[in-house]
Specification:
By secondary structure, the chain is mostly helical. It is built from five helices and no strands.
Length: about 140
């Protein structure tokens, strides 16, 4: 019989990993973008237009989802059981961030994020559970 209890500490640590990692990266990206804008003497509207390009939005979304995978992985490793479930819960918490920032991104970006956030958390949890029952190789 499988233990289905939720380790809320593992979920919290995974969700914090996802959220803080995403926010710190986005902040640093903003600082670099502002510096680049200043160096190129771009107006704020020109810089905004560059940041709204689909290639930039997709790259930032992939990076954010990568932090969700990492958060799911951390939750799975900390919980030591039901890694995929814990990763999925981290992804579910990530949906709250998507909803909080709904107005700051194009609708297509938000929809893709809603559809992919939980699977990314599940993936992280799955990765955390790999190798769990693997024996060391016989070196004789």
């Amino acid at each position: 019989m499988t233990d289905r209890r939720i380790d809320w500490l593992a979920v919290a640590i995974g969700a914090v990993t996802d959220t803080v990692g995403t926010i710190v990266f986005m902040f640093l990206f903003g600082v670099v973008a502002a510096f680049a804008s200043e160096m190129q003497h771009l107006s704020s509207s020109e810089m905004e237009a560059r940041l709204q390009r689909p290639v930039v939005m997709i790259a930032l979304m992939i990076i954010g989802l990568s932090f969700t995978v990492l958060g799911g992985y951390v939750a799975g490793k900390v919980s030591k059981v039901n890694q995929v479930m814990h990763g999925g819960i981290v992804g579910s918490v990530g949906i709250i961030l998507v909803l909080l920032f709904w107005n700051s991104a194009p609708v297509w970006n938000n929809i893709v994020s809603l559809v992919t956030t939980v699977p990314c958390g599940l993936l992280g949890g799955w990765i955390a559970g790999q190798g769990k029952n693997v024996s060391p190789p016989d070196l004789k």
